[in-house]
C-alpha cells in the first residue's frame, strides 16, 4: 500500500472562501481524502492560509494596520469555517509560521546552490507618489493578451496568463492611481529555461494528468520557458536568503507552493514523528494529488514541478492535478466587490454543510464552466438528495421498524429480481469507486444517484407492503436486500455527506465502515435480528417558496455573518 499526499490550493487569506473556491480545492480535496481513508489508504491531507505577498500588504496599508494582525484573525476565522464544512485536514497550516519560513529559505537556497537562481538588474514600475516599487498587485492595467482592463502585475484573472508588471498596458498604482515611472532594481530569477526538456518529458509521459492540464501545459512549455523573478520588493513575506538580498522577500507563489511540503513536515513535527517526513515526501512511490482551479494550472503543472526537479532532492512530481473549470454564479464570475456569489460562511447560515457538499459536487465543473443557479440548487436538494436518496433510505428504515419489530429481518430464497438487484449493486459500487479513484467526483455522485434510482425501482416493483400480507418471509427478504443496499449506498456517499451517513449508521445501530471499510462493505452483510433505532428523515426538502424568498434568505445570511467576520 502506497502513500498519498492530498493537496488543496491554499486559499488567500484576505477574504472568506466563496463557493467556487470550496469546490475548486478545499471540498474536492476533502471528498477525495475521505474516500482514500475509507479505502484504508495511508494518506494525509494538507493546505493552509496563503498569508504573504502584496495583496495582504495592500489591504493592511489601506487599513493602517500590520499585515499579521489581519492574517491572524482571518486564519482563525477560516479555520473554524473549514471545520464547520466538515472538511478534515491532517494539517491546515499557514505560510507565516517558522517551519514553513525556514523550509522555504532552505529550499530556494538549494536551487541557488544548484545553479538555477541568478541575480539580474531590471527596470520595474515605481510609484513616485507612494515611493514603492509596484510589484504584482500593487499595479493594475490592461492585459496585453486579452485586453482585460483590470489585469494585475502577476496574472490576468480573465485569460489566466502569467504576467510581469512591465507587460501591462496603461498601468497605474492601486493606491493612488498615478502612472508609474521606471527605476532600476535587482532581483533573483529562477532559470526555468534550464529545465524545459525535463519538464516536457514528465508532462508527456504522465498518463494520470487530465487532458485540460496536460495539453495546456505542454503547449505553454513548448513555446519556451522564461526566467521568472523569485523575489519581490515587498516587506511582508519570507525574507530572501540569497547573498545581498537584504530587504527582498520570496515571491508569494513560490512561497505558497512549497507549503504542500512544509505542511506535511510541520504535521509530523507536531506529533513528534519528524523522521516520517522524508518517508512521505522523499519516497518515489508517494502519490501526490493537487485540487485546484484551472487558473492555477501554470503554477502547479509548470512552476512547481520545475522547482521540485531543480532541487535534485528526489521529491516526487505531481501524480494527478485535478483542475476544475470555473463555477460561475448565475452566469457571472464570483466578485466580492460587486456582491456576486455566495461565500462559505453565508452558505452555512442557509443550510447545513452536507446539503452544500452534495450540491457542489453535483455541480462540480469537471469538463466545462458550470453555472450555479438557485433553481438548480433547489432541484438537486429536493429531487436528487431528498427524493432519490433520502426517501429511499427512509422508506426502507421505516418499513423495517414498523413491520419487523425494529429488527433486521431474515433473508430467504433469492428471486431472479433479487439477484439482478445485488449484481447491479456491485456494479454501481465498482463504478463509483473507479470514479472516485480518478478524482472524477461528480461522476462518482452520478453513479450513487443511479444506484439510488435503481433501488427505488426495485422497491416499487417488489412492493413489500403488498407482499407482507401474503408472505412475511418474502417481504423480509426484499427488506433485507434493501437494508444492505442502502448501507452500501450511504457508505459510498459518506465522503460527500459524512454527517448524514453517520446519522444513517446511528439509526441502523452500527458503527459504519471507518478506515478500510469500503473494501469490505459488499461482503459484510447486516446481522439478521439486529435491532435498529426509530428512523428519522436523513434529509429534508427545501420549502416550496424557497426560490421566491431567496433574496431575503441571502440578505439575512449576510447580516448574520457580518457580525461574525473579523473587523479591522
SSE arrangement:
Blueprint: E1 3-8, H1 19-39, E2 42-49, H2 54-63, H3 67-84, E3 91-94, H4 98-113, E4 117-127, E5 132-133, E6 139-142, E7 151-152, E8 169-173, E9 181-190, H5 196-205, H6 211-222, E10 228-229, E11 231-232, E12 249-250, H7 252-257, H8 259-270, H9 277-281, E13 287-293, H10 297-311, E14 320-324, E15 327-329, H11 344-350, H12 353-363, E16 370-372, H13 374-403, H14 416-437, H15 441-462, H16 464-470, H17 472-493, H18 498-508, H19 550-564
Parallel strand pairs: 1-2, 1-13, 2-3, 13-14, 15-16
Antiparallel strand pairs: 4-5, 4-9, 6-7, 6-8, 9-10, 11-12
Could you walk me through the main structural features you see in this protein, from its secondary elements to its overall organization?
This protein starts with a strand and ends with a helix. It has a five-stranded parallel β-sheet with strand order 3-2-1-13-14, sandwiched between helices. By secondary structure, the protein is α/β, with parallel strands linked by helices. It folds into three domains: 203 residues, HUPs (Rossmann fold), CATH 3.40.50; 118 residues, Methionyl-trna Synthetase, domain 2; 195 residues, Orthogonal Bundle (Isoleucyl-tRNA Synthetase, Domain 1). The model has no long low-confidence stretch (mean pLDDT 94). Helix 5 packs antiparallel against helix 6, helix 13 packs across helix 15 and helix 15 runs antiparallel to helix 17. It is elongated and about 90 Å long. It contains 19 helices and 16 strands.
Amino acid at each position: 500500500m502506497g502513500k498519498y499526499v492530498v493537496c488543496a490550493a491554499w486559499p488567500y487569506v484576505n477574504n472568506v472562501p466563496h463557493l467556487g473556491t470550496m469546490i475548486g480545492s478545499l471540498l474536492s480535496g476533502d471528498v477525495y481524502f475521505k474516500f482514500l481513508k475509507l479505502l484504508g489508504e495511508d494518506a494525509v491531507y494538507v493546505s493552509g492560509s496563503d498569508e504573504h505577498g502584496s495583496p495582504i500588504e495592500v489591504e493592511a496599508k489601506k487599513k493602517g494596520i500590520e499585515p499579521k494582525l489581519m492574517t491572524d484573525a482571518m486564519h482563525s476565522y477560516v479555520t473554524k469555517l473549514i471545520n464547520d464544512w466538515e472538511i478534515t485536514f491532517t494539517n491546515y497550516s499557514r505560510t507565516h509560521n517558522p517551519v514553513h519560513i525556514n523550509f522555504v529559505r532552505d529550499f530556494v537556497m538549494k536551487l541557488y546552490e544548484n545553479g538555477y537562481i541568478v541575480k539580474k538588474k531590471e527596470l520595474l514600475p515605481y510609484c513616485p507618489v507612494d515611493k514603492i516599487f509596484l510589484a504584482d498587485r500593487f499595479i493594475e492595467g490592461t492585459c496585453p493578451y486579452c485586453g482585460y482592463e483590470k489585469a494585475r502585475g502577476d496574472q490576468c484573472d480573465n485569460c489566466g496568463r502569467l504576467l510581469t508588471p512591465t507587460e501591462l498596458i496603461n498601468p497605474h498604482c492601486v493606491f493612488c492611481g498615478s502612472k508609474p515611472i521606471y527605476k532600476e532594481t535587482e532581483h533573483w530569477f529562477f532559470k526555468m529555461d534550464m529545465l524545459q526538456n525535463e519538464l516536457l518529458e514528465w508532462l508527456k509521459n504522465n498518463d494520470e494528468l487530465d487532458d485540460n492540464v496536460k495539453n495546456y501545459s505542454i503547449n505553454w512549455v513548448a513555446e519556451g520557458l522564461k526566467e521568472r523573478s523569485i523575489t519581490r520588493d515587498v516587506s511582508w513575506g519570507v525574507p530572501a536568503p540569497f547573498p545581498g538580498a537584504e530587504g527582498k522577500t520570496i515571491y508569494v507563489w513560490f512561497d505558497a507552493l512549497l507549503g504542500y511540503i512544509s505542511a506535511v513536515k510541520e504535521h509530523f513535527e507536531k506529533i513528534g514523528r519528524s523522521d516520517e517526513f522524508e518517508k512521505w515526501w522523499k519516497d518515489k512511490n508517494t502519490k501526490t494529488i493537487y485540487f485546484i482551479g484551472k487558473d492555477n494550472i501554470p503554477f502547479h503543472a509548470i512552476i512547481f514541478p520545475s522547482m521540485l526537479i531543480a532541487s535534485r532532492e528526489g521529491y516526487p512530481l505531481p501524480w494527478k492535478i485535478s483542475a476544475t473549470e470555473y463555477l460561475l454564479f448565475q452566469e457571472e464570475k464570483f466578485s466580492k466587490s460587486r456582491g456576486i456569489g455566495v461565500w462559505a460562511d453565508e452558505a452555512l447560515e442557509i443550510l447545513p454543510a452536507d446539503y452544500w457538499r452534495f450540491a457542489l459536487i453535483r455541480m462540480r465543473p469537471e469538463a466545462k464552466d458550470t453555472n450555479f443557479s438557485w433553481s438548480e440548487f433547489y432541484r438537486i436538494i429536493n429531487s436528487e438528495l431528498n427524493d432519490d436518496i433520502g426517501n429511499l433510505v427512509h422508506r426502507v428504515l421505516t418499513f423495517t421498524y414498523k413491520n419487523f419489530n425494529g429488527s433486521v429481518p431474515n433473508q430467504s430464497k433469492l428471486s431472479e429480481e433479487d439477484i439482478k438487484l445485488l449484481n447491479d449493486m456491485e456494479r454501481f459500487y465498482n463504478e463509483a469507486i473507479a470514479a472516485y479513484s480518478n478524482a472524477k467526483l461528480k461522476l462518482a455522485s452520478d453513479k450513487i444517484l443511479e444506484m439510488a434510482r435503481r433501488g427505488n425501482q426495485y422497491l416499487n416493483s417488489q412492493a413489500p407492503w403488498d407482499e407482507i400480507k401474503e408472505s412475511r418471509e418474502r417481504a423480509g427478504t426484499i427488506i433485507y436486500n434493501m437494508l444492505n443496499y442502502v448501507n452500501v449506498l450511504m457508505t459510498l456517499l459518506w465522503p460527500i455527506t459524512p454527517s448524514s451517513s453517520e446519522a444513517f449508521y446511528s439509526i441502523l445501530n452500527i458503527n459504519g465502515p471507518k478506515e478500510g471499510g469500503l473494501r469490505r462493505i459488499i461482503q459484510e452483510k447486516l446481522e439478521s435480528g439486529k435491532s435498529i433505532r426509530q428512523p428519522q428523515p436523513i434529509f429534508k426538502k427545501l420549502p416550496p417558496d424557497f426560490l421566491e424568498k431567496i433574496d431575503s434568505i441571502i440578505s439575512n445570511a449576510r447580516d448574520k455573518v457580518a457580525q461574525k467576520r473579523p473587523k479591522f
